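Hey, I was hoping to borrow your eyes for a little while. No rush at all, and the record is pasted right below.
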Amino acid sequence: MDGEILRDPTRRFVLQSGAAVGGGLLLSFTMSSESQAAGDTKVNAYVRIASDGKVTIASKVPEVGQGIKTALPMLIAEELDVDWSAVTVEQAIADTKVYGRQVAGGSMATTLEYDGLRRVGATVRALLIAAAAARWNVPADSLKTEAGFVVDAAGKRRASYGELAQAAAALTPPDPKSLTLKDPKAFRIIGKSHKSQNLDAIVTGQPTYGIDVRLPGMLFAAFAKAPVYGAKVASVDLAPAKAVKGVRDAFIIEGGTNLQGLLPGVAVVADSWWAARKGREALQIQWAEHPTARQSTAGFAAKAAELAAAPPHRNLHNDGDVEAALKGAAKTVSAAYSYPFIAHAALEPQNCTAHVKDGKVEIWAPTQNPESGRALVARSLNIDPSAITIHLIRGGGGFGRRLMNDYMVEAAAIAAKVNAPVQLIWTREDDMQHDFYRPGGWHNLTAGLDAKGGLTAWKNHFITFGEGETFNTAAAMNATQFPCRAVANYRHDVSVMPLGFPTGFLRAPGNNAFGFVIQSFTDELALAAGKDPVAFRRELLGEPRLLGEPGKGDSFHTGRMRGVLDLAAEMSGWGRKVPKGTGLGVACHYSHLGYVAVVMQVTVKDGAVKVDKVWAAADVGRQIVNPSGADQQMQGSILDAIGSTLYQSITFENGAAVNSNFGDFPLLRMADAPPVEVRYKLSDNNPTGLGEPAYPPAPAALCNAIFAATGKRIRSLPIGDQLA
């Protein structure tokens, strides 16, 4: 049971302010809605019950398309024992004192909340039963619940939750440890597919996202920053911007040097966003010189080649004697792999609405990480964090980009100079050229095989970005990535180079690139060993066992990986004959506590790649909370990975990103999206998340399929025109 997150479902765990999971049962009910219906009863911080039995449940984690606004309330509703059709979900306000951790990142919401939120629902149910027991003067253990009602054992008396809510809210909650949670066999909500909350509003174009927020008297803002990250405003003529019809003001924001914070720029505020944009386009800005202007993609590649030819800066992991094992190997294989910087490219550009008044700040933001945004705004505006209110608004995609809150602090800084609410909206070009990019990297690999084709040694000289022993954000690689601990002789070295661009967490951070490298090179080793790629992986995984320490996130269970590998192979009919020019490729990877194997079938004709179909198998524990949501996350991750593998790369010249829109940073088109068949291998492990682990094996499965179809090995991404 590797990678388990320990849980302590104690009374303090559920009740304490700021608890990591569950929390706030005795605190005031807080939701983002402006009002509650007459007759509603606040039972606790998560549940409100109306007199007609309708239930409103707060969803604590930001929603950015991952479906968590549906999945987490399902946990509460299941143990509350209410029909899902009677449930309305509202987004909770950002308040860690009530809700604990409120972060949409790392695929951790299900992992951290599964037990705690079920106990929240069970606690409310227990309170309702206690209220009925007091009303009828009977023992509580003589009562049960049935879909929104408390009933007695004989079925003669029944009371709706709406009738009991007020009395229940006045009672002291029981110790959560004393409560018996449902047997999964009795689940009526968990494990059943439910459509995403707000789906009807989304598909009918109703205002749902951050960009849709409207407040009385609200103005709109555009913000110009230097093409070179962090460069200051040397001079600017504001008059042309102020002359644009509808523009209210234009001014300099001094900013600072922290690439994750408020950077220098020029703001334009207007009656409409179009007027603000036109005003910004009229600005005549001279930017100061900045040392990052000397950096470029070509320069990084040249430096990486220089570092690859030199001794590594340092060693991060060393098992056995790799050099001796390589000298004694029957065969050695060496290959160099690389991948580029890429942008998040969420469909909704960064935006935020802020109002600064009387020493207080109110923010409406599609953020994945509101508390870091609160801290950033507090530092920048020199106010107490408690004076900041953050409303969590649905984001049109996040993929890790909205973990950073630069757009939030920009909106707050602009609003601080304007006596009105202000909505800042970035252009697509802003979003593409001022991202926190997935960092590029280079891997120089050598491995040894014995006479039977078994792996005896693995060495990687990884070249990435950082200074000294500090890595840039998301640029480090876990030195214990598989096949570490599965091969006796394993060495992971690293060299770094400085970087002036901000990097960040993109879906399955790090692993989105490492999966491509590790699983592509593994395919090369299978070929060198003269073995089938699936069979080679089976041998490498060996007997089912845990590699690493129990409870550690980098521990790796070979049996769980073997399970999904075998399932994906079975689903795809691995080993069957395919037409000439068509190939099957396989890859498997562990990340974010999830085990995923992917098989792709591709056809290559005249240098063009067509992905025919994808089969994916995942092991994320014993329970899939919302199967339709899980399928969407698996499918979305894989399609996202296919698009980046085929097309995507951010190029830097003279310290600035060259790419500016989807024309030169393409997304996968619907017409090119293959069918993705998904199945789950249930295991006796706690449920974990699915937003990210399907991404890492997909690029390698695609490239391995291309090799099977063409004999051409792809070692550098994106594929682009390499097959032309």
User: Anything to note?
Assistant: Residues 109-136 form the longest helix (28 residues). The first strand starts at residue 41 and ends at 42. The domain at 218-290+346-433 is CATH 3.30.365.10 (Aldehyde Oxidoreductase; domain 4). The CA atoms of residues 43 and 482 lie 47 Å apart.
